[in-house]
């Protein structure tokens, strides 16, 4: 499937996930930019991230002070070709994987560690 179509499907899945968030989390989620990417940047790969990474949160988590080593605003990156491949090119599975990956990365923005994400079914 071509990247523009994957982007449209992913944006729809993220929007649906945002609408289903609890009222106290929804406004926070809407202030975190979501970017749909083809592949991780070279600097991420140099840091040790796998080329088939599904998603990534970068920036300062909610409720933390601005950090000079993280000058960019909080953002969620979703790597659509990796998600498409992970979903074995099944559109419904892709939608679900986008939803789960988005929620997982949003959890990092909210300050949840891997154990808390697992407890919430977002691992």
Structural account:
The chain has helices at residues 3-19, 26-30, 42-46, 80-86, 91-109, 114-119; strands spanning 33-37, 55-58, 75-79. The model has no long low-confidence stretch (mean pLDDT 90). It has a single domain (3-60, 73-119), classed as Zincin-like. It is globular, with a radius of gyration of 14 Å. The chain has a 3-stranded mixed sheet. Helix 1 (3-19) crosses helix 5 (91-109) and helix 4 (80-86) crosses helix 5. The protein has 123 residues and is mainly α. The two termini are 26 Å apart.
Report the radius of gyration as a whole number of Å: 14 Å
| Overall mean pLDDT | 90
Number of domains: 1
Number of strands: 3
Backbone shape:
globular
* Low-confidence sequence ranges: none
Largest sheet: 3 strands, mixed
Distance between the termini: 26 Å
**Order of strands side by side in the largest beta sheet?**
1-3-2
Q: Tell me the series of helices and strands, N- to C-terminal.
A: HHEHEEHHH
Question: Under the CATH scheme, which architecture would be assigned?
Answer: 2-Layer Sandwich
């Amino acid at each position: 499937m071509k990247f523009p179509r994957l982007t449209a499907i992913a944006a729809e899945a993220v929007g649906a996930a945002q609408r289903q968030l609890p009222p106290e989390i929804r406004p926070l989620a809407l202030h975190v930019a979501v970017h749909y990417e083809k592949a991780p940047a070279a600097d991420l790969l140099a840091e040790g991230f796998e080329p088939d990474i599904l998603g990534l949160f970068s920036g300062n988590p909610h409720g933390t002070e601005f950090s000079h080593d993280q000058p960019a605003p909080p953002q969620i990156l979703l790597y659509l070709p990796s998600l498409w491949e992970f979903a074995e090119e099944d559109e419904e599975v892709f939608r679900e994987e986008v939803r789960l990956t988005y929620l997982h990365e949003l959890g990092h923005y909210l300050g949840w560690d891997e154990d808390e994400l697992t407890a919430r079914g977002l691992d």
